[in-house]
């Protein structure tokens, strides 16, 4: 059999096989379910190309089956995929809400102060410009401005029994 005749007679099927393989390879290189939807559509279009010469019917079947596969898989996978209502904080914004110890007195007016949080020392400022926070104080990180942690002193509450005894 002549290769030219084979390609002429089976060119569309080979094209759709290439699309299916390319989609499968692309999917295997990602973790995001990007191209999985095109594999069944391309395989169905490949089968159709063996019986129907119209490229429009092949393309229509490819697109329709790809969309159906996408919608079907989305509903199936939705049950098994973790749904997080809270944003996963990463990098420096993960420090917001954590506690640290003041290493150098925090004084916004003198633009000085540092806090040690999770074994790292950060430049720090107070949430209130009028409040100086002495070294050794435990603080809560409220925000991040540039590379500075915005902190407030942690308020330690005493148990009520101790308050009554001190009166």
Describe the structure.
With 167 residues, the protein is α+β, with helices and mostly antiparallel strands. The protein folds into two domains: 3-80, no CATH class; 91-153, OB fold (Dihydrolipoamide Acetyltransferase, E2P). Helices cover 43% and strands 22% of the residues. The protein is built from four helices and five strands. It has helices spanning 3-28, 38-49, 55-80, 160-166, and strands at residues 99-107, 112-117, 120-126, 138-145, 148-153. It has a five-stranded mixed β-barrel with strand order 1-2-3-5-4. β2 (112-117) and β3 form a beta hairpin. The longest helix is centred in the N-terminal third of the chain and has 26 residues, at 3-28. It is rod-shaped. The model is unreliable at 158-167 (pLDDT under 50).
Judged by helices, strands and strand pairing, the structural class is alpha+beta
- The backbone outline, from C-alpha atoms, is rod-shaped
Number of extended strands: 5
Strand order of the largest sheet: 1-2-3-5-4
Name the poorly predicted regions.
158-167
Please write the string of helix (H) and strand (E) elements.
Answer: HHHEEEEEH
Kindly provide the radius of gyration, computed on alpha-carbon positions and rounded to a whole number of angstroms. Answer: 32 Å
Cα distance spanning the termini: 105 Å
What oligomeric state do these chains adopt?
single chain
Q: Number of folding domains? A: 2
Count of DSSP H/I helices: 4
Helix content: 40-55%
Taking the sheet with the most strands, its summary is: 5 strands, mixed, barrel
Share in β-strands: 15-25%
Nearest-integer average pLDDT: 83
């Amino acid at each position: 059999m002549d290769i030219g005749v084979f390609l002429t007679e089976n060119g569309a099927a080979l094209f759709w096989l290439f699309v299916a393989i390319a989609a499968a390879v692309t999917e295997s290189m990602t973790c995001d379910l990007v191209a999985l939807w095109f594999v069944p559509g391309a395989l169905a279009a490949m089968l159709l190309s063996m019986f129907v010469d119209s490229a429009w019917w092949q393309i229509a079947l490819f697109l329709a089956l790809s969309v159906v596969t996408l919608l079907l898989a989305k509903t199936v996978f939705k049950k098994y995929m973790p749904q997080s209502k809270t944003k996963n904080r990463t990098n420096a914004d993960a420090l917001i809400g954590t506690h640290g110890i003041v290493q150098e007195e925090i004084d916004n007016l003198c633009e000085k102060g540092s806090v040690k949080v999770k074994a790292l020392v950060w430049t720090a400022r107070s949430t209130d410009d009028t409040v100086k926070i002495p070294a050794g104080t435990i603080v809560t990180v409220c925000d991040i401005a540039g590379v500075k942690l915005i902190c407030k002193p942690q308020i330690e509450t005493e148990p009520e029994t101790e308050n009554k005894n001190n009166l």
